[in-house]
Design brief:
Helices cover 31% and strands 19% of the residues. By secondary structure, it is of the alpha/beta class.
Length: 238
């Protein structure tokens, strides 16, 4: 039997740093449309919904043939609302109202406009083929932010954050570290979310993405950077 794989796109209306960030125009298109496009091009996703509290965002989703099965409750659309209860609400709603229970769930945040369908499918293949609890997209930490490069100020003195890190002054000698890239992709089993109350579970595997595809939009500078990269990508494909 074919697995039920649900994509949830969380996109609330409010945003402090950039008002209406999720539908702010990026190269003439609402930001969230890039995630709609990637999700619809996936070969493995077989249901895509949006979780939003905003009528305008819901209208744009509908125009893009993305399901809007509910409006997110106000208490789950605050600036400080954690992501976990938002996704659990979406999955629980579908299970209770439609008797729909996915095998796997993928969170696709609108703030990763350069994420492609290929990335979604490759992450899902890792999840399905390994039987792990979850897969999360990551990227290499830039060498300047590597823990062995981090400094702190103690009593007015600049000192290494990690003792004896001086031996790692050469970039090539520093151990590799990784950071979630937004994350652009969270993929996990139904049981990981609903029974373990987690996006990660006990066994979380990485899906490595490059720096360009990992762009995460948080402020206006990020928008400008994403526009530059997207315009270059579009010209390259012409």
């Amino acid at each position: 039997m074919k697995s039920k794989i649900l994509a949830v796109i969380p996109a609330r209306g409010g945003s402090k740093a950039v008002p209406y960030k999720n539908i702010k125009l990026l190269l003439g298109r609402p930001l969230v449309e890039y995630t709609f496009e990637a999700a619809k091009a996936s070969k493995l996703l077989n249901r895509i919904i949006i979780s939003t509290d905003d009528e305008k965002i819901a209208e744009i989703a509908g125009d893009n043939k993305i399901e809007v099965p509910f409006f997110r409750p106000k208490e789950l659309a605050q600036d400080d609302t954690p992501s976990l209860p938002v996704i659990k609400h979406a999955v629980s709603f579908l299970e209770e109202k439609e008797n729909y229970k996915p095998d796997y769930i993928v969170i696709l945040q609108p703030t990763s406009p350069l994420r492609k369908a290929l990335h979604i499918d490759e992450a899902l293949k890792i999840l399905i083929e390994t039987g792990t609890d979850s897969v999360v997209s990551v990227m290499h930490i830039h060498h300047q932010c590597n823990p062995y490069s981090v400094m702190e100020i103690r009593d007015g003195k600049l000192v290494p954050f990690i003792a004896n890190s001086e031996k790692y002054t050469q970039r090539q000698a520093k151990p590799a570290f990784y950071v979630r890239n937004g994350a652009a992709i969270y993929a996990f089993k139904y049981e990981t979310l609903m029974k373990k109350n987690s996006f990660f579970g006990d066994d979380c595997r990485p899906y490595l993405m490059n720096k360009v595809d990992s762009v995460d939009i948080d402020d206006l500078i990020d928008f400008e950077f994403a526009e530059l990269l997207l315009s270059k990508r579009q010209k390259a494909s012409e």
